[in-house]
C-alpha cells in the first residue's frame, strides 16, 4: 500500500522539505509512505567536513523550535533555549544544530491534520499509525539531504530520548555520541496506562466527532485539555507541587463549597490544559502517544536489550533525575547495564532534583554541568577542538 503526501494546511516560519518522493518511507506497519513533509529548524553552521552536526530530538508535545527567540505559536522562547544557543551548552557557534518536528506532528510535518490529496480532506484517523522507528527513519532522510554521514551527537529527553536510542540501535555507525535524558528503552505499563486515559478523554469529547472534527469545524478542546492535565501531573513531583502550591487557595478567602477551582493547583492545571489546546492537534496527540507506547528496543531481540547495542562504538551518557517517576532512574540503570553488557562506552548519571520528569527542561545546574562535560569530552574525542 502506498500513501501520497498531504499538503500543509497553513504556512509556518522555518524550513519544510518534501522527502520520500522516489524512495518511500517504509513504516513499521508495512505501509510505503510518501512523499511526506518534514518541518525543521537549524542553528549554527555545518563545518567543511560535516562533522559538527547535532540532532536534537523533541519530547511528546515539543517541536522543532528548540532555540528560537520567539516561538511562532506560543510567543515564548524556544523550549530548550537555556541549553541551545551561542556560547551555551549546545553551542551554535561551534555546532550545527538540527531539530525536526516528528512525522505525525502538527507544526508543519505530515500528520493527521494535513490534507490527504486522495480525498481533499484532512487525514484524521486515515493517517497511518506511526512508531518511534518511523520518526527516526524520516529524520535520516533529512540528514541524508544535508549530506551528513555521521552525526556528532544525538540528544533528547523523554520521547526525544527514545529517538536517541532508536538512532543508536538502528544507525550506530552514524552516531558518534548520544545523550538519552529522562527516558527509557521501553514505555512502562504505568505510562501506557496514563496515555490511554488521555486518549480516552479526547475520544469521549463529543467534539472529537470520530476524529473528523476539522471537517465539522470543531475542536475537542475539553477532552484534549483533560488529557494534558493528566499527563502534566506525571511530569511533576509531589515535593515540587507542594512547594509551589501546597493547599493554597486561588484568589479567595475561603473554600466555596462548589466544584470551582478553589485551589491554586487546580487553576494551574486548567491553565496548562487550555494553553495546550491552543497549540496542539488532538489527533496528533493520539498518534504520538501511541508511538511512545509501542516503543520497546528489546522486543526484536527476545528481551535481550544488550543485543540492540552490540558492536556499537557510540559514546553514551544516560541521564536521569531522582524525582522522575515517569521515567525512573531504575529504567536508566537497566539501560546502562545493557550498554555495559554490550561493551559500549557509557556513563550513567542520576541528578538529584525534586522537580520531577520536567527537570531536564528547567534550570538544573548539575544536569547542565554533566551534559556540558559530556559534549566537551566527546568533541575532543571527535577532534572538533
From TrEMBL:
InterPro entries: AB_hydrolase_1, AB_hydrolase_fold, HAT_MetX-like
Active site per the UniProt annotation: 158 (nucleophile), 324, 357
Broadest EC class assigned to this enzyme: transferase
Keywords: Acyltransferase, Amino-acid biosynthesis, Cytoplasm, Methionine biosynthesis, Transferase
GO CC annotations, alphabetized: cytoplasm
Domain AB hydrolase-1: 52-362
Pathway participation: Amino-acid biosynthesis; L-methionine biosynthesis via de novo pathway; O-acetyl-L-homoserine from L-homoserine: step 1/1
Compartments (UniProt record): Cytoplasm
Leader sequence residues: none
Main function: Transfers an acetyl group from acetyl-CoA to L-homoserine, forming acetyl-L-homoserine.
Entries under HAMAP family matching the protein: MetX_acyltransf
PANTHER family: HOMOSERINE O-ACETYLTRANSFERASE (PTHR32268)
Subunit details: Homodimer.
Protein name as annotated: Homoserine O-acetyltransferase
Annotated organism of origin: Thalassospira marina
Gene behind this protein: metXA
Amino acid at each position: 500500500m502506498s500513501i501520497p503526501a498531504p499538503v500543509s494546511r497553513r504556512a509556518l516560519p522555518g524550513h519544510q522539505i518534501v522527502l520520500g518522493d522516489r524512495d518511500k518511507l517504509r513504516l513499521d506497519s508495512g505501509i510505503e509512505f510518501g512523499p511526506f513533509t518534514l518541518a525543521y529548524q537549524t542553528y549554527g553552521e555545518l563545518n567543511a567536513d560535516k562533522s559538527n552536526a547535532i540532532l536534537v530530538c523533541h519530547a511528546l508535545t515539543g517541536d522543532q523550535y528548540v532555540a528560537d527567540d520567539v516561538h511562532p505559536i506560543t510567543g515564548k522562547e524556544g523550549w530548550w533555549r537555556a541549553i541551545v544557543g551561542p556560547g551555551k551548552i549546545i553551542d551554535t557557534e561551534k555546532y550545527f544544530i538540527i531539530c525536526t518536528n516528528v512525522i505525525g506532528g502538527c507544526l508543519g510535518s505530515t500528520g493527521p491534520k494535513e490534507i490527504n490529496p486522495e480525498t481533499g480532506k484532512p487525514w484524521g484517523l486515515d493517517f497511518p499509525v506511526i512508531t518511534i522507528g518511523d520518526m527516526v527513519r524520516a529524520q535520516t532522510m533529512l540528514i541524508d539531504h544535508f549530506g551528513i554521514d555521521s552525526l556528532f551527537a544525538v540528544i533528547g529527553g523523554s520521547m526525544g530520548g527514545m529517538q536517541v536510542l532508536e538512532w543508536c540501535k538502528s544507525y550506530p555507525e552514524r552516531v558518534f555520541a548520544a545523550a538519552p535524558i529522562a527516558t527509557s528503552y521501553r514505555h512502562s505499563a504505568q505510562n501506557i496506562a496514563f496515555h490511554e486515559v488521555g486518549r480516552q478523554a479526547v475520544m469521549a469529547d463529543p467534539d472529537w466527532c470520530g476524529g473528523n472534527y476539522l471537517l465539522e469545524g470543531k475542536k475537542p478542546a475539553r477532552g484534549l485539555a483533560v488529557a494534558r492535565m493528566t499527563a502534566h501531573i506525571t511530569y511533576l513531583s509531589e515535593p515540587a507541587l507542594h512547594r509551589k502550591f501546597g493547599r493554597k487557595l486561588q484568589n479567595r478567602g475561603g473554600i466555596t463549597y462548589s466544584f470551582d477551582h478553589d485551589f491554586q493547583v487546580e487553576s494551574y492545571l486548567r491553565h496548562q490544559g487550555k494553553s495546550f489546546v491552543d497549540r496542539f492537534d488532538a489527533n496528533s496527540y493520539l498518534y504520538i502517544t501511541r508511538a511512545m507506547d509501542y516503543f520497546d528496543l528489546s522486543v526484536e531481540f527476545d528481551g535481550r536489550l544488550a543485543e540492540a547495542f552490540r558492536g556499537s562504538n557510540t559514546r553514551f551518557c544516560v541521564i536521569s533525575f531522582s524525582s522522575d517517576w515517569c521515567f525512573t532512574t531504575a529504567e536508566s540503570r537497566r539501560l546502562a547495564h545493557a550498554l555495559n553488557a554490550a561493551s559500549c562506552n557509557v556513563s550513567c548519571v542520576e541528578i538529584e532534583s525534586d522537580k520531577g520528569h520536567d527537570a531536564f527542561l528547567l534550570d538544573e545546574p548539575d544536569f547542565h554541568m554533566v551534559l556540558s562535560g559530556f559534549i566537551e569530552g566527546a568533541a575532543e574525542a571527535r577532534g572538533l577542538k
